[in-house]
Specification:
The protein is built from 16 helices and three strands. It has a three-stranded antiparallel sheet with strand order 1-2-3. 58% of the residues lie in helices and 3% in strands. The chain is mostly helical and 374 residues long. Strand 2 and strand 3 form a beta hairpin. Helix 4 packs across helix 6 and helix 8 packs antiparallel against helix 15. The chain is globular. The protein folds into two domains: 223 residues, Citrate Synthase, domain 1 (Orthogonal Bundle); 98 residues, Cytochrome p450-Terp, domain 2, CATH 1.10.230.10.
Length: 374
Amino acid sequence: MTEDIKKGLLGIVVDETEVSKVMPEINSLTYRGYAAQDLCAKCKFEEVAYLILNGELPDSKQLKNFEKIERKERKLSKSLLDSIKNFPKKSHPMDVARTAVSIMGLEDKETKDNSPKANMRKVMRIFAKTPTALAAFYRLRKGKKIISPKSNLSFSENFFYMCFGKVPNKEIVKAFDVSLILYAEHSFNVSTFTARTITSSLSDIHGAITGAIASLKGPLHGGANEEVMHMMNKIKKPENALKWINNALDKKAVVMGFGHRVYKSGDSRVPTMREYFAKVAKVKKDRKFEKIYDIVEKVMIDRKNIYPNVDYPTGPTYHLMGFDTDFFTPIFVISRITGWSAHILEQHAANKLIRPLASYKGSSYRKVVPLNQR
């Protein structure tokens, strides 16, 4: 009898979650029941981070306290800063993020405590410190002085400040905030499932998030936004786009930024991110990538009936904001820490070791022949 194998766990429901869902009745990704695009329109990132971690949108007092805790935890230890200074300058920033969180686990006095309250305290420290670590490396590899975080700036404003030494105009900050909201959570994706699998062994939260970062680095997951930008840089100008994408499809090449296992008729996050991509392009007075975007998107839909996912508009948006391409996925990290953490907390609350089976396809039983007889 042939076993029914679901490669990649396709279609397999392995657990329950209250954190997020793509609701087909409204064709939207939702966080705790709220449509992601509605949250983008009416909330800032900190409100959504609170929602994902705590289950409800905060009132003014709750938000103020949440922001106070996050801002207080932004600074890094001298030891962690010294470690980052010694990282090879050619390191991929995702490896920096992974290693920085791992070092945080070495330093944190509560690493072994998996109680809900201790885990939430650790979540806030990881959430607050990871952007600081990444921004420090961003500066160091360019030969620039590290900029310390400012406690009077929002989460998004502070990241820009630590990377560039200044806060851009409100339209840019809002677009960045929107990207963080859209990237914050997406149910049992590969990095989240990795975090939950690690957690299921009752490992610590730093280890689970470290594993999630390693998983997110791959081009079939978080790294797709970087690949989108590499593609656009290869195309170079709108006049080349039509020929380039048709040639790519003729050669059956993989076109990054398109398709999604959950969405079959279009990622519900794309219209919102596309809108803010256009706003950033207008502020920067650079419509080149928008034009390339539209041409490639049309051909992909016309020829393959494959629609873009959120990485497609996010990549060029981050580029226009001034970020290096290999920093796109680390930005994803600083947002998705919220979703990973919510799932880690949820896994602890009703834990069962995740241990699937495999269908063995190897040799049948064999006897070992001594070395001198082989």
